[in-house]
Amino acid sequence: MAVIGWIGLGHMGGPMATHLARAGHEVVGFDVDARMAEQARAGGIRTVTDAATAVRDADAVFTSLPRSEHSRQVLIGDAGQPGVFDRVRAGTLVLDTSTVDVETSRACHEAAAARGIRFVDAPVSGGIAGAHAGTLTFMLGGEADATAEAATLVDPMAGHVFTVGGPTSGIAAKLANNLMLFITLQASSEGARLAEALGLDPAVFHDIATVSSGDSWPLRTWYPVPGVVETSPANRNFDATFTTGLAAKDLSYALAAGDAAGLDLAAGRLAMERFERLIDEGYVDKDCSLVVKYVGLDGRTPGFDPAA
């Protein structure tokens, strides 16, 4: 069993780290939010008061952070402050499970290599439910020896593990996947509302679509009509399982990668416009599936009470 340093014990990182602790690893964790640290302690994680202490004696380090700038700051350091790469032993395996932009992932690989650290971009898919269930999909990018060890290490948290390729290939897979997720979210929103407008029973239409050509993960998991799918945020006034703010962040990274590649990601830009409208209306912390409200010209949708 290994000593694992974990930085970022939020809604994703906390339950992920708990699975490693339950698998017998000694997990030493840090989060800037004391409430998240307290929850992590209940999962068997020994929490400390700073990131340096969390990684000091670690055999491997995981980070689970909100944005690209947080990964850069924590891993590489800034303003003369050392990062994780400066504090761990040479040869230590460091995995960033955060969703970041490609340039940040590349910078982390280069900074790690310069210090003799083995780095893997290791983003995940499956959301908070997958983090709790231990069924996340891991996408691993890095040098072969590092990704091979990483694949074994992440097993207690994973339903699927893919070694995608060299440095930044894991994050590339994640960004392309999330682009598809947010586009199909728009499709399931429009299909659900059209079915309703044409007089179809929502549950019957959902059952038809999930075994037909309109099937998608958002359709099965986030169907934006209350009372049809247990996991849908529409059952809970669109309280977030995946916030609009995080969705917009992830999609912005995918669109930037498309621009750099000379691609026209028109459907992705439409999805981004809908997320930006939600943010402008003050719904940055509501679930991203609330984009369904824009299908109706009156801005209303079943299951959502803006006054609640």
List the helices and strands and how they pair.
Elements: E1 3-7, H1 13-22, E2 26-30, H2 34-42, E3 46-47, H3 51-55, E4 60-63, H4 68-76, E5 77-78, E6 81-82, H5 84-87, E7 93-96, H6 102-114, E8 118-121, E9 124-125, H7 127-133, E10 136-141, H8 144-153, E11 158-165, H9 169-197, H10 202-210, H11 217-221, H12 244-260, H13 266-280
Parallel strand pairs: 1-2, 1-4, 2-3, 4-7, 7-8, 10-11
Antiparallel strand pairs: 5-6, 9-10
Q: Shape from CA axes?
A: globular
N-to-C terminal Cα separation, in Å?
Answer: 47 Å
**CATH topology description of the largest domain:** Rossmann fold
**How many separate structural domains?**
2
Task: Looking at this protein, list some descriptive labels.
308 residues; alpha/beta; Rossmann fold; N-(1-d-carboxylethyl)-l-norvaline Dehydrogenase, domain 2; 2 domains; 6-stranded parallel sheet; 3-stranded mixed sheet; 13 helices; 11 strands; 46% helix; 14% strand; globular
